[in-house]
């Protein structure tokens, strides 16, 4: 079981450059990957995404790729002189129109988009990818390891909460038949008090009692909750993406608990229902972070 929250960093260096990749993620219904890398290597984005998607099923993943050049061998900076002149002319005209009398510096020009273009790696982008891939694999390993560790912590917490739910269900299971008997007795007493004995239709009374017994019985709900809890315990031990399965299962569990609450007026069972819903809500919130 894996959490959707994680962080990982990978670094690869050689004599020419140092590549640093950082990854972080939060929960998301789908696998949403955003990559920030140098513009001159934007063509590698799809390849990098495919590598990440092969190992990550869900989550909003942000990837930051930074390249520092150790020497100028592979650095290729192009100056767009024509564009720089256009920027200079435009700034000069603006300066005159606004009567600013300001001095236009070199920094004002080269800081404009497109004046300085980094074309490093564009001609040998495949070679760059091989180097980036080494740092990426390291970052991915650290990233997945953190998600796995947090997932194991969540699994332990789930197991503890499932244990609490089972204990509460034992209280309900013990109390359920007694409550049903009490309700049936109340029904019989009410009928006998309000209907004369010689006019009492025993056959009809038996039928009504049977119908009430069926409506108020929570045996089916108790059985289904037991099965849901067993399924939950099995699923959290599976590999891969299990978040959606757990989310569906916890909804079914909550529905059964609500049904129990609507069928009884017994204070002990109603208190137990409140405690069950509290534990289920805690699990539901944590499930949102499971891959």
TrEMBL record:
Residues 1-156 form the Endoribonuclease YicC-like N-terminal domain. InterPro entries: YicC-like_C, YicC-like_N, YicC/YloC-like. GO terms for molecular function: hydrolase activity; RNA endonuclease activity. Its cofactor is a divalent metal cation. Residues 172-291 form the Endoribonuclease YicC-like C-terminal domain. Keywords: Endonuclease, Hydrolase, Nuclease. Belongs to the YicC/YloC family. This is TIGR00255 family protein. It comes from Anaerosphaera aminiphila DSM 21120.
């Amino acid at each position: 079981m894996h959490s959707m929250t994680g962080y990982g960093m990978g670094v690869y260096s050689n004599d020419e450059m140092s590549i640093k990749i950082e990854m972080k993620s939060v929960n998301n219904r789908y696998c949403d990957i955003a990559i920030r890398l140098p513009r001159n290597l934007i063509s590698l984005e799809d390849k990098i995404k495919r590598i990440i998607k092969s190992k990550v099923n869900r989550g909003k993943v942000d990837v930051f790729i930074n390249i520092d050049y150790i020497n100028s061998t592979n650095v290729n900076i192009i100056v767009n002189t024509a564009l720089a002149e256009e920027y200079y002319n435009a700034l000069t005209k603006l300066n005159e129109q606004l009567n600013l009398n300001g001095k236009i510096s070199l920094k004002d020009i080269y800081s404009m988009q497109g004046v300085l273009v980094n074309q490093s790696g564009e001609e040998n982008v495949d070679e760059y990818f091989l180097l980036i891939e080494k740092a990426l694999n390291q970052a991915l390993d650290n990233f997945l390891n953190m998600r796995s560790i947090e997932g194991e912590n969540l699994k332990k917490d789930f197991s503890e909460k499932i244990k609490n739910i089972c204990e509460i269900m034992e209280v309900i299971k013990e109390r359920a038949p007694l409550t049903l008997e009490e309700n049936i007795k109340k029904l019989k007493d009410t009928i006998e008090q309000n209907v004369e004995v010689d006019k009492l239709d025993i056959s009809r009374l038996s039928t009504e009692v049977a119908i009430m017994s069926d409506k108020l019985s929570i045996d089916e709900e108790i059985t289904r909750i037991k099965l849901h809890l067993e399924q939950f315990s099995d699923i959290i031990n599976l590999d891969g993406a299990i978040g959606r399965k757990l989310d569906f299962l916890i909804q079914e569990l909550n529905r059964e608990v609500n049904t129990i609450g609507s069928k009884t007026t017994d204070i002990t069972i109603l208190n137990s229902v409140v405690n069950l819903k509290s534990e289920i809500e805690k699990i539901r919130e944590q499930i949102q972070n499971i891959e």
